[in-house]
Structures are given as structure tokens and as C-alpha cells.
Design goal:
alpha+beta; 17 helices; globular; disordered C terminus
């Protein structure tokens, strides 16, 4: 960044933080917001409370009180952030991402700390885990919401709950339950995405998938190889026969699977034995360009009926991808309508990297994992303030990049450039003139057509 850009960022920060002013009851409390955000974006090596306070010339105890004791509305802060994203960064092909991250912590007195899988260290370690909702569209990504994961041990320990000030209404929730609540909240604040994507921990939860269905949300979920269903809708009985109606005693529950219905099967077995899979060849599709070159996957896709409460759901996609080099298989399920191009679903399925990028930026640049506070409220306030800092950082990064494009007299991308329906020569032309966009990684013309029997391509 040059001097003019630094000055522009410095002038923009107060205006940005003004949007959150009504989340703080007092002016002196509000003043610590800029201290915290400015400290997170500084060049400090350690971005915990004390060095950030000393840098700003305020007593460390005052900044500690800002996180844990002073009265301000952190829930309104999150709502305002989501409303800001919905207003300034909405896009018809935005993608929502669910994921979690962990921060290693010593001792046992930090809220929700325990020995559990720590993804950042790649092993079971003493850490806290938080679940996050991310938002991504071309050139922009941010975190919308964050919650600590409360294990059953913590939820059932009144002594430790009191020590960290955990509210009485807080109970143990599975990570998919936390994620679903976050999605409901973001929808209530105007966030709209073309599709949600997440890994198999969330994809394995039928309750989570059902919740997204009920909210009218499209998803592309990675699922474990043991996920069950049918590739052909099994027969379902919805009425009793006259003989059954004449029988005494309690009638059998309806609806139910017919006695002649095919057995439910795991997706790994369907891939090997189902004629629907065996009757089609692996089709190579260019997913994206990575650091090591083109990322290509071989793909098969069929209609799929998930098992929910013992009965088949409506038709879904079951997509299987195979790494052309290592042979690694991944399974995805989507509730997208039949006319949605498979290339777009694959683009969504392999778009979890933006939230991983969010975590890296928050940890490497904002000191997300440097917090030394222990209480429930302090940690959550730190999570939310980190979201604010990260949102501002990416807004300015996007704005400065757009200004550089304008200076170079290169045409800025149009909204139509990001449409997943754009295919063929238009995308090839965009690649040939050096312009980049998300669709260049998926829009590859392939023959034969990718649409399984019974599915129509309405693009």
C-alpha cells in the first residue's frame, strides 16, 4: 500500500465504525471499539488486550473491562454487521459456508476449553472450538457469525459455568444445531445466498439438512461414504388394505415402505453396485486452478432419495467426485432443482476455501487466536469484534483493488460475469483476455451431457 491508500483506509475506518455506534450505551464505551479494531489491524506482534491498550495509550484494565464488564449490545453488533453485508455486498451467486476453527489454550479455566480435536494443530489438544458462518462472493469474503461450541461436560458442570459467567440459557448444542441457528439469524438480517456448503460433519446431520430444506435454502453438502438412501424411489404404502382394515388391534404406521421396496444402501455401495452409476462413465471436470495447476475431478451424478425417518425424501443430487491422481472419492448431496447445471453444484461443493481464508486472515493478521480472556462474554465479544475488523479489512481490500483496476483502465467485472449459467465460448473468451472470475473454474464444455437420465438442463 502507498501513502495515499493508507490515508484513505484511515479516513474510512471512523465512518465504518459509526454504523455500530448504537450498539454502545455510552460514548466512552464506544471509544474502545476503535481502540480494539485499530489494535487488531496494527503491526503489533501480539494482539492481546494489554499490548493493544498500551499502543493506544489507554489502561489495559479499561480495555479488559470493555470486553467483560462494560454494558454494550454484542448481539446488535452482529445483527448490524450482517445487515451491512446484506446491503453492500449482496450478489445473486453469493455462497454461504459453514465451518469451525479452534484455538489452542492452556489450563482448564477458559470458557469451553477441553481436550478435543484441534484442527489448527492437527491433533487432539487442549483448545476451544468455535462454529462460524461465512459469506463469499467474487473478490469478497467475511465471517457473519461465531459461537463457542459447548460440550456436554461443560454444559453439565455448574461450578465451571459459574466461573466463566456462562448464561443459564446456554445448553449443549451439536455443531449442526449451532450452524442452523446462525443461518436462521443471518436470513433474518437480510443475507441471501445462492447455496450453502459445508463438510461431512454437518452433511451427516439429517436434522441439519432438513432444517435447511424447511428454510428454503439450497445446499451442496459433503456427506460421509456411509450416508444412506436410494437411487430409485422405493415404493411407499400410504393406505391399508381391506384385510388390514378388518384386523383387530392397532394398525401399522402409515406411510411406510412397501414390503417389496429396495433396501436402503450406503452411497459407497451405490457407487459400486448401482446400475445408475455403472451405466455412466467418469466425466472429467475442471474445478479450479490451484497453486499446483489445474484441479480436475472425475464426476458421476445420479438422482438420489435420502432416507429421513425411514422414508424417502424428494429427489436430490448424489454427486461423486474422484481425484484423477490419487483416486480419492468424495460424496456430495444437494437439494438443488433438476435444472441447475452440475458444474455450478461442483463449484459450490469446492468453495469452502473462502472461510478457511477468513480464519487464516483473522489469525495471521488480526490476532484472532491471541485472546487471553477467559469468560464466556469476553470471548464472544472478541469473536464478534474480530468479525468487524475482518469485514472492514476486506471491504477496503476490495475497494482498493477495484480502484487499481480502474486506474489500469481494465473493465470491471459485471454481475453477469459471475452467473453460473454462463458457459462455453463466453467463458473461454473471458479466460483468453486475462480476466478472472469464479465461473472460469467450472464452465467447461463436456460431452456427453452431464445430466443423468430424467434430469433436464434448463440453462
Amino acid at each position: 500500500m502507498d501513502v495515499n491508500q493508507i490515508r484513505k483506509v484511515g479516513r474510512a475506518l471512523p465512518r465504518f465504525l459509526d454504523e455500530f455506534g448504537d450498539c454502545f450505551g455510552r460514548c466512552d464505551t464506544r471509544s474502545y471499539l476503535s481502540v480494539y479494531v485499530d489494535g487488531q489491524m496494527s503491526d503489533l506482534h501480539r494482539k492481546s488486550v494489554e499490548p493493544m491498550a498500551l499502543r493506544a495509550g489507554v489502561p489495559p484494565r479499561s480495555l479488559q473491562a470493555f470486553l467483560g464488564l462494560l454494558t454494550w449490545d454484542e448481539d446488535r453488533l452482529v445483527d448490524r454487521l450482517q445487515q451491512h453485508v446484506a446491503r453492500d455486498h449482496s450478489h445473486p451467486w453469493a455462497i454461504g459456508v459453514i465451518d469451525e476453527t479452534s484455538c489452542g489454550k492452556d489450563g482448564r479455566h477458559t470458557a469451553c476449553v477441553q481436550r478435543q480435536w484441534c484442527g489448527s494443530l492437527g491433533k487432539v489438544e487442549n483448545c476451544v472450538v468455535s462454529v462460524h458462518t461465512g459469506y463469499a462472493v467474487w473478490g469478497f469474503h467475511c465471517v457473519l457469525d461465531s459461537d463457542l461450541f459447548v460440550s456436554e461436560d461443560w454444559a453439565d458442570d455448574p461450578v465451571r459455568r459459574k466461573e466463566v459467567g456462562m448464561p443459564g440459557e446456554v445448553v449443549h448444542r451439536s455443531k449442526p444445531e449451532i450452524a442452523l441457528a446462525q443461518i436462521k439469524r443471518s436470513l433474518g438480517n437480510g443475507i441471501r445466498v445462492a447455496a450453502w456448503t459445508f463438510d461431512e460433519l454437518y452433511g451427516a446431520s439429517y436434522g441439519f439438512l432438513d432444517g435447511l430444506d424447511r428454510l428454503g435454502q439450497t445446499y451442496v453438502a459433503e456427506v460421509p461414504c456411509t450416508f444412506s438412501g436410494w437411487v430409485k424411489a422405493p415404493a411407499v404404502r400410504v393406505r391399508l388394505t381391506p384385510r388390514e382394515m378388518r384386523r383387530k388391534g392397532k394398525n401399522r404406521r402409515l406411510p411406510r415402505l412397501s414390503a417389496t421396496a429396495a433396501s436402503v444402501s450406503e452411497v459407497r455401495n451405490l457407487l459400486v453396485h448401482s446400475p445408475a452409476f455403472q451405466g455412466q462413465a467418469w466425466t472429467p471436470i475442471h474445478i479450479k486452478n490451484g497453486e499446483k495447476g489445474a484441479n480436475v475431478r472425475e464426476v458421476k451424478a445420479v438422482r438420489f432419495f435420502m432416507r429421513r425417518d425411514g422414508l424417502p425424501t424428494r429427489a436430490h443430487w448424489l454427486i461423486v467426485t474422484r481425484d484423477v491422481h490419487r483416486g480419492e472419492l468424495k460424496f456430495f448431496v444437494s437439494n438443488a432443482s433438476a435444472g441447475v447445471p452440475l458444474e455450478w453444484l461442483l463449484y459450490v461443493a469446492y468453495s469452502r476455501w473462502p472461510i478457511e481464508q477468513c480464519f487464516r486472515e483473522e489469525k495471521d493478521e488480526l490476532g484472532f487466536d491471541h485472546f487471553e480472556v477467559r469468560s464466556w462474554r469476553s470471548i464472544h465479544r472478541h469473536l464478534y469484534l474480530s468479525q468487524v475488523s475482518h469485514l472492514f479489512m476486506n471491504k477496503m481490500r476490495q475497494q482498493l483493488a477495484a480502484e487499481e483496476c480502474a486506474t489500469d483502465r481494465s473493465a470491471p467485472p459485471r454481475a453477469d460475469d459471475f452467473s453460473p449459467w454462463t458457459r462455453g465460448s463466453a467463458v473461454s473468451a473471458r479466460e483468453s483476455d486475462g480476466r478472472s472470475g469464479p465461473l472460469r473454474v467450472v464452465a467447461v464444455a463436456v460431452e456427453p451431457p452431464l445430466w443423468p437420465t430424467g434430469w433436464s438442463h434448463t440453462a
